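Please describe what follows:
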Amino acid sequence: MSMKTGKGWIDIGKAGLADGFLENAMSSIEKLYAKLRKGSDGEADIQVQADVEKNIFKVLSYQAESAVAQGDFQRAVMCVQRCKDMLMKLPKETCYLSILCYNFGVETYEWKKYEQSSFWLSQSYDIGKMDMKYSVGKEMQAKVLRLLATTYFEWDCSLYLDKALKAISLANQDLCSTKSCPNNVLFSIVQENLHPAGFFLKVKILLKSGASDEDISSGITALPRFYITPYPRRLHCFVFCLAVAEFTHLEMSLDFCLNTAKLLLEHGRYERISKESLGFDFLKSVPERFESSPDLGKITLFHIEFLLQNKRELLAKQKIEEVIVGHYTGKQLLPEALNQLHIILWDRAAKHYEEKSYSEALHWYNYSVSFYTPGQIDQNLAKLQRNMASCYLHLKQVDKAKEAVKQAERCDPNSIFTKFSVYKIAMLENNTEKAMEAVIEMGKLAEKLSQHEDKLRVDKNTGSNLLSLAAQIALENDQQIVAIKALEYLSEHLQDCQQLFASLKCLVRLILSKVMAENAEKRDGDINSILTYLNLAHKKLAESFTEEKFTGDMRILEAHWFRKVAWNLAVQFKDSPEKMRDFFVLSFKLSQFCPSDKAVLIAQKTCLLMAAAVDLEMGRQQVTPSEQTELFSQALQHLQTCKEIWKVLKLTGDFAKDPTDTLLLLYEFEARSKLNDPTLHNLMESVWEQPQIEIKTLEIIASLAMESPARYPVLCKKALKSALNLHRKQAVIDAVKFSKCLHSLINISLPTGLTDLDTCVLQEVWHYFEDALSVVSSTDAYPEMEILWLMTRAWNTGIFQYTVGKYKEAEQWCGLGMHFLNHLGSLKKSYEGHVSVHRGI
C-alpha cells in the first residue's frame, strides 16, 4: 500500500510527499527479504523471494523518479545503480529501466541540465545493450542516441563534438549496421531503416563544427565511415552521386528534404561539381522525387527564395516567369503557395523601393499583378495597386499613378490607404478641394479603425500615422487649410501624448498665423478653434498621468507652453471680453499642471482676477436676469479659488503694495450684492474692522451697493460715512474729493422730492451740511458748483418744511442755505436776488 501511495504522489507532481511512503515500503520489503533468505528451503520460497526482489526494484525505480523530480541527481543515480545491479536477476526489467533512464534524460534536457541529461541518456543506451533478448530495440536505441547527440550539440558543440558525432553515428549504424555488403544491399538497408532525423542531425553537427566538405558529404550519404575511408580520392564525386541516389530511394518527406537543402545552403557549403553549390544541386534533385505531389510548388518557392538570398536575381526572375507561364497553362500553384509567392515578390519589390530603385520595384510588383485576372476584386490587389502608384509618383508618372489608384478604389474603396493615395495625387496636382475631401474621408475612416481595430486586424496607429503624413505633405506644399484639417483629425485619434501635443502646438501656430492675417469679423471661428485645441490639451494633460512614457517633466513643459499661449491670447483679444475670459480661465487650468512656484502662483492669481472682472463686466451689460446670475456666480467661484491662491502666495514674500486684497474685496462685494447674497453683511463686518481700508475703496463699495440690480442703501451710507470720516482725518482735506463724497452721502440720506422726512434723518443730514460749511469756510478749493448744490438743497429743504407747516425748521434750513450763498463767487449775485424774492414771500 505504501508503495502504491508513494507512486500516486509522484504521478500527481508531489514527489516530496512520496518519499516517506517509499521509505516505509522499502524498509518493510527489505525486512521480509532478509527473513526469506534465512529461511529459504524450497522452490516456493524461491518464487516468493523473486517477487520480493521485483518489488524492491520497483521501489528503487520510484525513488529514482522522486529524486529526479526534486532535482536530487546523486540520490537518483544511487537508486538507478542499485536497479542496474539487480538486472542480472531480473533481466526482463532491462527494457523498463532503459526507458526510465531515457525519460529522465528527456526531463533534464527540457530543463537544460545537459550534463545530467547526457548521463541518463548514456545510461539508457548502455542498459539497452545489457540483454539483447529484453532490449528496447534498435529503433529506441537510435532514438536515445539521437537525443544524446542533440544534448551534446546544444550543451557545447565545440567541446563535445566528438561525443555528439559518435552518438549520432552509433544511432545511424544501429539502424543499418553492416561491415561488408555491396552497394545495392546497403541501399536496401538504408531505405528500410535509416531515420531522417539521424541523417539531418549528423549534417547539422558537421556543419556547425566547421567540418570538411568530405565529412559532410559522408554525412549526407549516411554511409558508415569504415566503408568509404579506403577510397579518399574517389570519394569526392562518388559521395555526392551516392547521396542523390540515396534520396531517390529513401521514404522522406518533402519538408525534410527542403530543410536539408536549407541547412546546406545556409552554411554556404560548396562542392565544386559543375560549379554549382552542393545545396542547389541537392535541391534540383528533389522535384524528381515529388513530381506528382500537389505540394510541388513548395520546392519552387524554396528555390526562388534561396536564389534571391544568394543574390541570383536573374535566375530567380526566370524561375518566376516559368511559374507565371505555368499558371496560365494548367500548372497553378496551390492557394497557400501562391500567397507565399506574392509575399516573396512584394518583399523584393519593397527592398528595391527602399533602395529608391522604383522601376525595379515596379518590375516585381508586375510579377504579382500577373497572377490576377482582369476585373478581379481583391483587397490585396488594391494594396498592390497603391504600392505601384507610389512607385509611379516617385518616377513622376502621374497618369499611371492615377490609373493605379483608380484600380485600387475599384477593389477597396473604403480603405484609408486608398484615400491616402487619392490625397497624395490631389496634393501633387494642387487640387485643394479634392485633397480636403480625401482628408475628411481619412478622418472618418480613422475613427472606424480605432473602434474596430481588432476586427479589421490593423495596427491601432494606422489612421494616426497616415493623417500625420497627410499633414506633413500639406505643410510641405504650403496648403495650410488642408494641414489644419488633417491635424484636427489627427489630434482626435492620437494615443501617444508627445505626438498629440506636438500636433496641437502645430495647430495653434497655424491658426494663429491665419488669425493675424484676417480681419476682426472673420476671427471668431478661428478663435473658437484655438479654444478647442487648448481645452483638448488640458484634457490630455489630465489623462497623461496614466501613460508611463510621458514623464512628469514632459507634462510640465507642455503645460507651460499651452498656459503661456492662453495668457497671450487673453491679452491680445481684450476687445472680446468673453474670449478673453475663456483664455484666462484656460491659462489658469493649464497652470495647475505646473509646479506651484511664485511665478506660477502670481499668474494663477492674475488669471482668476481677470476672469472674475470680465464676468462682472459682462454681468453689468443688458442681459437677462438668469444670465446675470450665472455670470455673477461664476465670478464668485473664480474669486473663491483666487483667495486660496492669494493666501499661499502672500507667504512667499512682501506684497504690502499689491492691490489684490482690495480687488478681491470689491469684486466679491459686487458679485454678492448683485446676487442678493445673504452673507454680504457678514463680509462687510470684516471690512468695517479693517484699519487700513482706503477712502477710494469705501466710495466704490458705496457706489456698488446701489448699482442695479443691487440696492443696499444702509451699506452705501455706512461706506460713505466711513469714507467721510477718513477725509476729515487727513492732514489737509482734499476739498474736491470731500465734496463728492459728501454729495453722495447727502443724496442717499436726503432723497430728492421727499417731503415727509423723519426728524432724525433731517438732523443727521443737518450735520452733513454743517461739516460741508466748515470745510467751505476753511478753504477756497471747494468747488463752487458743489457749494451752489449745497445751498440749493438746503434752501429747497427749507421750502419743503415750510409747505408742511414746519416754519421753524424751514427758517433753519433756508438760513443754512444763505450761509452757503455767502461763499459763492461769480454766481453769488445771480442767486442773491432770487433768494431775496423767496425771503420776501
Notes: Residues 752-840 form one domain. Residues 676 and 710 are 7 Å apart (CA to CA).
